[in-house]
Amino acid sequence: MLEDEIKLILAAKQGESASFDKLYSHYLPPIYRFIYMKVSHREEAEDLTHEVFLSAWLNIPHYEPQGFPFSSWLYQIARNRVIDHYRTKKPQTSLDDGSVDAELIKTVSRLDEKLDDSLDLEIIRQAIKKLTHDQQDVLLMRFMEDLSHQEIAAAINKSAGAVRLIQHRALNELKKNLSKHGR
Amino acid sequence: MDDKILKILKTGKLIEPSPEFKERSRRLLFAAPTPKKEYGFPAFFGLMENFRLRLALGTLGALLLAVLGVNYWQTFNQPNLNGQALKHEVENLDFQIQLQEIEYFENSAKEIAVILDDIKRAEPKEEPEINPIN
Q: Which residues of chain B lie closer than 8 angstroms to A29, CB-CB?
C-alpha cells in the first residue's frame, strides 16, 4: 500500500490530478502485468490498462475506501475490462495457444538475463489462460503480486475462504495443463 | 512442482510497461475533464458544461428571482394588507354589522308603525246597527 494513500485518494476525489498521478505511477506496473498475463499482446494490454486508469480517474469521486487498498478497486476494474474485452472480441484464429510471445521473452530476458525463465513464464502464461477468469485472477494476484487473500476477495467480490478454494483448484488445474506440455 | 510454478510466476514481476506507453497514457488521462461528483440529474449537469448556456440560464434565473421578489414585496407589504390591520378590521366588522342591524330595525319599526296607522285611517268606519236585536 502506498504511503499516505488515503490522503492521495481524498485529494484525487476532489479532482487533484497530481494526487491521482502518484496513485497512477505506483499502480500502473502491477495492473499492466495483471492484464498482460491475461491477454494476447502488449498493445492489447496497453489499451486495456489505459482504459482501467481512465475509468478509475473518471469514477474516483464515487470511490469510497472500505479498509482495502486502492489496488483492490483497480484490480476489480481491470478484471471487468478483460472480461468485457473477451466478450466483445471477434473470434480469431488462435495464434496464442501454444505459441510463444516474443515480447514477453524479450522483456523478461532483457531484465533477468535468463532466457529459460522467460520461456517457462510464457508456457505458464499459456497454461494460465486456459483456466477460468476467477482462477487466473487469484493465481496472478496471489503469486505474482503477493496480495493477501482478503485483498483478492475484495477485488473479485468473494469471501477469503472462497479465494483459498479457487487458489487450490487453480493450482491443481495449472499443474494438469502443464503436465500436458511435458513440464 | 508447486514451488517451481510459484518461482516462475514470481519472475512475472519483471514485466514492466514501456516508458513511452506510461507517458502517452498519462498525457491522455489528464487531458480528460476533471471528474466531479454528480448529485442526480446527470443530463442536466451535462448541459451545464456549456458556458454560454450556463450564462443564459443564470441570467434568466436572476431575472425570474427579481420579478418574483418585487411581486412578493408588493403583495405582502401594502399598508392595507398589513396582517395586524386586517385582523383589527375583521374583529370590528362584526360589531359594525350589529350596529347597522339595530339602526335598520329601529327605522323599519317606525316606518311600519306609520304605514299601519295610514291603513287604519283609510279603512271605512263601522256603521251603527239599525235594528239592534235586543
A: 16-17
- In whole angstroms, what is the distance from residue B132 CA to residue B119 CA? 29
- Chain B partners within 8 Å of A60 (Cβ): 35
Q: How far is B65 from chain A (nearest CA, A)?
A: 31
pLDDT digits (tens, 9 = 90+) for A120-139: 888 888 899 899 999 999 99
Distances, alpha carbon B125 to alpha carbons B119, B120, B122, in Å: 12, 10, 9
CB A5 within 8 A of CB A71: no
Contact between A174 and A142 (Cβ < 8 Å): no
Q: Which residues contact B79 (CB under 8 A, 6 or more apart)?
A: B85
Judged by DSSP in three states, A92 sits in coil
| Residue type present at position B67 | V
pTM of the model: 0.62
The interface pTM score, or ipTM, of the predicted complex is: 0.77
Query: Which runs of consecutive H residues, i.e. helices, occur in chain A?
Result: 5-13, 17-36, 42-59, 70-88, 102-112, 115-128, 133-139, 149-156, 160-180
